[in-house]
Structure formats: structure tokens, C-alpha cells
Amino acid sequence: MRQRVVWVLVGIAAAALATVLVSRPSDTYPMPAGPGSSMSTPIAVGEPAQGVVVFMEIRPGDRVELLGAEPVGLLAGATTTLYLSRPDVASDGTQTIGEILEPLAGAVIEVPADAVAGPSNTVGIVGELTADRPGIYELTAVRLTFRLNGGAEQVREGISVYWTVCADDPAPTDCAPPSQDP
Predict the structure, then answer these.
(1) Distance set, CA 32 to CA 10, 15, 19, 138, 169 (Å)
(2) pLDDT tens, position by position, for the chain (182 residues)?
(3) For residue 129, which of 174, 169, 77 has the smallest C-alpha distance?
(4) What digits encode the pLDDT tens for the residues 101-117?
(5) Helix, strand or coil, per DSSP, at residue 59
(6) pLDDT at position 178, please?
(7) Biggest distance spanned by C-alpha atoms of the chain
(8) Taking the mean position of all CA atoms in its chain, how far away is CA 46?
(9) Domain ranges of the chain
(10) Whole-angstrom Cα distance, residue 44 to residue 6?
């Protein structure tokens, strides 16, 4: 009897661990796990600024349906719109992301199963920020709602580039992120 109780307890512990692992996946795909760089943009109040804040490399064979996105970390005083940007491929084969914008919600990104994994399967999320008043605005993450391969709705947060926007009237000559000193 005692051995059966031990096995029941082991089974309960294993089920609890499996639940935790399933509910907290370590794979943040399709969002990047963390920032790789930062950018700073000085603008005049009321002038829109744009920057690619997320680069998503879609895996071969995957279909990602974007349902929506919202900026994380911005204070009141600015409006931010997020767009999808697919690669713009030049005649010499070079590609840029961030030049061609389309609405993010409802966009579908598909990569053929026989495609080679790599940067050629990358799309971007572009932030467009317009400040309503002077201030320093920092975009620290993007919360993306999506469906992967027709599955259930999912939400992930991530960012490739932390973005600091300094707005003033007139536009500042430079833009430095706020000091992180205590």
C-alpha cells in the first residue's frame, strides 16, 4: 500500500510539472526572445517617427495569422500604431524590411515547407509613434496575438530593438535614453 501511495504522489508531481511546462513554454516563437539592440529617434511633437522594433523569422512550413499587436512600456502622451513589413527585395537580391507597410491585424505570413530556414523568411513589425506632448517615450516590448498553423489563439511578448523617442518642440538635436542609474 505504501508503495502505491508513493507512485500516486510521483504521478501527481509529474502531472503538475507537465502542466507548468506546457503553460510556460520556453520557446517564444515567432517573437524574438529579447532585444538585440536599441535605437533612439529625436522628433518634433506631432511628427510621426518609424522604426522596425521586431524581426520575426518564420520557420519553413509555418503559417502565422496575425490577429493584433500592442506596444508595451509606453507612457501616455503618444499614439503608436504597429504595422507588418514584408521584405522589399531589390533587383540585386538585397532586401530591406521597414519600407513597405501593411496593416498588421489580419495579415498572414506563410513560408513554404521546402524553403531554406534563415533570414530570407524574416518579416518585421514597424512601430509608428506620434508624440502629443514633449517627453521621452520608450517601447520595451510588443504583445502579439496570433494563430500558428491554424491552431488556437496565442499571445507572446518580445522585441528585437528597444526604441527610445525624444519629442520636443522644436525637435531635439539628439535623443539619449533615460539614465538607468538609481
Answers:
(1) 35, 29, 24, 18, 35
(2) 444 433 433 343 334 333 333 434 568 899 998 888 999 999 999 999 999 999 999 999 999 999 999 999 887 899 999 999 999 988 998 899 999 999 999 999 999 999 999 888 999 999 999 999 999 999 999 999 999 999 999 999 999 999 999 999 999 998 877 655 44
(3) 77
(4) 999 999 999 999 999 99
(5) coil
(6) 67
(7) 80
(8) 25
(9) 28-168
(10) 67
Given the C-alpha cell 500516486, which residue does it identify? Answer: 8
CA 38/CA 178 separation, integer angstroms: 13
Q: Cell 508624440, residue?
A: 131
pLDDT in tens, 28-63: 899 998 888 999 999 999 999 999 999 999 999 999
Write the CA distances from 3 to 8, 11, 12, 15, 16, integer angstroms: 9, 12, 14, 18, 20
Q: Yes or no: say if 125 and 31 are a contact pair by the CB < 8 Å rule.
A: no
Class of CATH domain 28-168:
mainly beta
| Cell numbers given for 69 | 499587436
